[in-house]
Amino acid sequence: MNRTSDTFINYYKLLGIDPTADRKTIKQAYLAKIKEWHPDKNPDRADEAEEKTKVLNQAYHILEDPEQRKNYDRMLRYTEGKDFNEYINDEAIRDKLDKVYPALKTALKNVRVLYALFKDTVNGKYKMPPASVAMIGGGLLYFILPADLIPDFIPVIGYLDDLAVLTTIMNSLKNEIGDYRIWKNLD
């Protein structure tokens, strides 16, 4: 996440490359940007350079791994240019949970924990890797917006795809969520 805009970071734009770039091009762009933003070369703005270097490292590690890149590209198509604060907020989460069929509420109780984790991380109260925060943000955005794979107006089934996306994210981030539960004293 980019704390200044709370939008999903486009790693391709960050590296100045085309989304169809091959691994060699990605590596070349990464190395050029790392040289440019190395904290030693930017002593007058060391904090900014350090943060930029972290984001560049994250970008490279995601884009150079074919599976992570595939997942990132999917999330980028869905979230590009959206302001998370516009869609993901207390009211939107509460409204969505209240509309869910009661039998699914039990299964969705962890969504509140996922949202709390996202919110605490974005607000700087808790630290998580940017890719994990982006994954949670994209999942919550998918959960909130009614126009998705199966429209939410279809009783029960309309929420199953939302639940599937969030369950996949929760399974992927099981350790991080467990650490957060301990930190937040939720168990």
Structural description of this entry:
- The chain is mainly alpha-helical and 187 residues long.
- It has 2 domains: 11-79, Helix Hairpins (Orthogonal Bundle); 84-184.
- It is 68% helix and 0% strand.
- The chain is built from 11 helices and no strands.
- α2 packs antiparallel against α3 (46-63), α4 (66-79) packs across α9 and α9 packs antiparallel against α10.
- The radius of gyration is 18 Å and the shape is globular.
- It starts with 10 loop residues before the first helix and ends with a helix.
Biggest β-sheet description: none
Mean pLDDT: 82
List the secondary-structure elements in sequence, H or E: HHHHHHHHHHH
Instruction: Name the beta content range.
Output: under 5%
Radius of gyration from the alpha-carbon trace, in angstroms: 18 Å
Spatial gap, N to C terminus: 27 Å
What's the number of domains? 2
- Estimated helix fraction: 55-70%
Structure annotation, total helices: 11
Low-confidence stretches: 1-6
What labels describe this entry?
single chain; mainly alpha; Helix Hairpins
Topology, element by element:
Layout: H1 11-15, H2 23-37, H3 46-63, H4 66-79, H5 84-87, H6 90-99, H7 102-107, H8 109-122, H9 130-144, H10 157-172, H11 174-184
Summarize the structure in short:
The chain is mainly α. The protein contains 11 helices and no strands. The protein folds into 2 domains: 11-79, Helix Hairpins (Orthogonal Bundle), CATH 1.10.287; 84-184.
